[in-house]
Design a protein that fits this description.
Layout lengths: L10 H7 L8 H23 L3 H18 L8 H12 L9 H15 L1 H35 L12 H6 L21
C-alpha cells in the first residue's frame, strides 16, 4: 500500500493500542467486575468510611472496562453482570444493624438510594456493548460483500471464504469433501 493512502493515527490512539486487551468470557467478566467492586468497596470503607459517592464514581469505569474487555461472543453479558457486581460490591458499605435482616435492609436501602449510579453504570456497559456489536456486524457485512464481489467461494452461494471469515472475526470452516467409497456412494 503506498504511503500516500495510509491514514495518520493520533498519538493517543497509538498509546491506547498498547494497553492490555484481555478478552473475558461472560462469566469471567462478571467475576472481574464483582471482584473489582468488592475491592473498591473495602477500599472505600477503609479510606472514606464507606462514602457511596466514591463507590459510585468507581463503578462507572469498572462498567466501561468490563464492557470493553468481554469477548465479542459474550457482549450481552456485560450489561447483566455489572448491576450484579454493583449489588455484591455494595455489601461492605451498606451499613445496617446486626443480624441478617438488618444487613439485608441496609443493602436494599443502599441500592434504592443509589440507584442512579447503578443505572448509569449499566447504561455505560450497555452502550459500549451495543457499539461493539454494531461494529462487529459491520465488519462481517464488509467481509461478505468483499467475498461476493471477489467471486470467492462457490459462485452464487454467498459463502464466505476462510480469509473473509477471519477478517470478520469468525472462524473459517474447512471445505466440504465429498465422500467416496462404499459408505459414501449410493447405488440405485
Amino acid at each position: 500500500m503506498p504511503s500516500a493512502r495510509r491514514r495518520r493515527v493520533a498519538p493517543v490512539v497509538l498509546r491506547l493500542r498498547r494497553l492490555p486487551n484481555p478478552r473475558f468470557t461472560g462469566l469471567g467478566a462478571g467475576l472481574f467486575a464483582t471482584a473489582t467492586m468488592l475491592f473498591f468497596a473495602f477500599l472505600d470503607q477503609l479510606l472514606f468510611d464507606g462514602a457511596p459517592l466514591v463507590y459510585g464514581l468507581l463503578f462507572l469505569p469498572v462498567s466501561a472496562v468490563t464492557a470493553l474487555w468481554v469477548r465479542t461472543a459474550d457482549l450481552v453479558t456485560a450489561p447483566i453482570a455489572v448491576p450484579i457486581a454493583f449489588a455484591v460490591g455494595v455489601l461492605p458499605i451498606a451499613g445496617g444493624t446486626e443480624g441478617f435482616g438488618g444487613q439485608f435492609m441496609g443493602l436494599v436501602t443502599t441500592l434504592a438510594v443509589h440507584a442512579g449510579w447503578l443505572y448509569g453504570g449499566t447504561l455505560v456497559a450497555g452502550v459500549i456493548a451495543s457499539v461493539r456489536k454494531v461494529r462487529q456486524m459491520g465488519r462481517r457485512q464488509i467481509a461478505r460483500d468483499a467475498a461476493a464481489r471477489g467471486g470467492a467461494g462457490r459462485a452464487g452461494t454467498g459463502r464466505v471464504t476462510g480469509a473473509a471469515a477471519a477478517a470478520a472475526g469468525g472462524v473459517p470452516r474447512a471445505p466440504r469433501v465429498p465422500r467416496t467409497g462404499a459408505a459414501g456412494s449410493r447405488r440405485v
